[in-house]
Sequence to fold (327 residues):
Amino acid sequence: MKPSIYITRKLPDVCVAELKEKFDVKMWESEEIAVPQDVLLSEVKKVDALLTVVSDPVTEELLSVASNLKVVANMAVGYDNIDVEAATKRGIYVCNTPDVLTETTADLTFALLLATARRVVEAAEFTKEGKWQSWSPFLLAGHDVHHKTIGICGMGKIGEAVARRAKGFGMEILYHNRTRKPEAEKEIGAKYSSFESLISQSDFVVAMAPLTNETRHMFNAEVFRKMKSTAIFINTSRGAVADEGALYEALEQKEIAGAGLDVFEVEPIASDHPLLQLKNVTALPHIGSASIDTRMAMIHICVENIQRILTGESPKTLVNKSMLETK
Ligand code: GLV
Fold:
């Protein structure tokens, strides 16, 4: 019997053709609607490999019924949707898709920063809605980006790529990270800063840290209160690094000037969510890495990792590296 694979979202045929030659492949047939957890629970019982997306919770409960499962290939660099510890305990490889999405996600982060600062979405809607009556001095006037201070919280590869873009805009670059990045300091001129000083000095506070127990709600009411009243908060990492209730209050009370959000605590965010009612919030549907080329590259890495593991080779991009030591 051929090893079997379950893919939790419809992917282009060309991407799965190679897998179909060697393995039994079953795929959830919708591109937009997530596979229900009960369907996933039943499918996972039989398969050797799972190809998942960020919205699939790969829980201990799910893994505990997956008696043949050898690999979960997650189409994302982040893997907070997966209980990695439970997978490792069961000898299941967890793979992600780093590197290929770095520049694309940095592009979107900077696009969101510019759009929020210069009110681009609001201005485009205003024009299309026929509200434009005449040129006026402060019509949709926003905040400058050039030569302002950006504070990047979480200086991984994407953080560094954002910093390179900020350098091109003549910005002063502060960063906060668990470890210092001497190369980024030398090459980009980024300055290491404590979290406290970064949040109080930055005009743009950019959340780039992965979601972990330590980073959950790291942007809370107290933190927003310490930001400049002209500060703009940008989040393209995970919604839960910010306390959305506190963010709403900070925006509503004008403790900060705006927010550009690509990610939310609950996704998809409901259209009647309080944050979406605010004019100074620019909201996107988690599209950080969504260029066609990058999404194809991410699928390709997942496919390659699955093929390698099911044919006895080591994976290309492994999250639970301790798996290699125990083999
Ligand atoms: C997307 O959010 C990712 O982690 O790649």
